[in-house]
């Protein structure tokens, strides 16, 4: 069942406003941001995460009757919330502060991610950097936009010149060792501890590739669509396509399929 998408710019405006009123005030007053651990010292939550998600949830649901919401913080409290992405109803997927570790340390590398998914397919995606105002948007089949201009991924390059993010978090030690060895034959490694910021670099043509091993939908549903609509190629390590219904596996994004094949051999063997 196809749905009529809400106005893309209206969604962007809601995201901007919530980021301004509910998220940035805590970044400018970290002493009162309520930083605490969820599962460990590298997995944090702040009052900004909770306030942003709490504000966006009814606003987005109200734009599309019959839709549901899957927020990272709601899912951390009740894993059953993740099941919403498998249903037939359209679902808004929210990561209110992607890069919470950076946020909590006062580093300006975080962003808001929103995706609209139905039937295991991402229909639209948004990534917003509240500090510099960048807003990336994409609708399936309509290209990717960054601040109102059409964007394209970086052209293919020799492996030795490929810049990107090769994460070794959330993977087996032997895989991490293989990746660490493989990046030695590539260009500069730029890992930002924020998938959103790494996706923005791909859209701006500043990075050629990204590699991830944990595929929570709030981290990647919007970014994979944006990258594809900007002309990029991505797939899981076994060559199968990404889906926002996935939570595990290894995802590799590249400028094109030939580059993907070369990077896969270089990084994963």
From TrEMBL:
What are the record keywords, sorted? Magnesium, Metal-binding
Cofactor(s) this protein cannot do without: Mg(2+)
**By its UniProt entry, which InterPro entries does this protein fall under?**
Inositol_monophosphatase-like
Matching entries from Pfam families are given as: Inositol_P
Molecular function in Gene Ontology: inositol monophosphate 1-phosphatase activity; metal ion binding
For the biological process aspect of GO, one term held by this record is: signal transduction
Q: Which family does it belong to?
A: Belongs to the inositol monophosphatase superfamily.
Name of protein: Inositol-1-monophosphatase
